[in-house]
């Protein structure tokens, strides 16, 4: 894979002392920027457009914007049909 095949920016969890934070980093590994001052112990995913991050901590499932936005708790409900299909609905 060539560097030009990578996205312009990527997100990575970075440990600082005993806390983990998510950083946005340029493709070439420069200009690391902390996404949010709050610790993200279990960084799970980034939306396809890079605008939202999802993480888990001991208090629940959360999401935040990728630019120092407010951190919001995600509520979710799961249901399973008689055929065994599972549906998960998220809300804030």
List the helices and strands and how they pair.
Layout: E1 9-16, E2 19-26, E3 33-34, E4 42-46, E5 52-57, E6 60-65, E7 71-73, E8 75-80, E9 86-91
Antiparallel strand pairs: 1-2, 2-3, 4-5, 5-6, 6-7, 8-9
In words, what does this structure look like?
By secondary structure, the chain is an all-beta fold. It has one domain. It contains no helices and nine strands. The strands form three sheets. A four-stranded antiparallel β-sheet has the order 4-5-6-7, with no helix packed on it. Strands 1-2-3 form a three-stranded antiparallel β-sheet, with no helix packed on it. The chain has a two-stranded antiparallel ribbon with strand order 8-9. Strand 1 (9-16) and strand 2 (19-26) form a beta hairpin. The termini are far apart. The model has no long low-confidence stretch (mean pLDDT 79).
């Amino acid at each position: 894979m060539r560097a030009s095949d990578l996205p312009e920016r990527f997100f990575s969890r970075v440990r600082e002392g005993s806390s983990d934070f998510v950083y946005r980093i340029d493709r070439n590994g420069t200009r690391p920027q902390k996404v949010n001052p709050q610790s993200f112990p279990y960084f799970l995913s980034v939306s396809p457009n890079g605008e939202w991050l999802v993480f888990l901590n001991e208090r629940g499932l959360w999401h935040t914007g990728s630019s120092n936005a407010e951190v919001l708790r995600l509520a979710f409900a799961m249901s399973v049909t008689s055929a065994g299909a599972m549906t998960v609905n998220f809300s804030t």
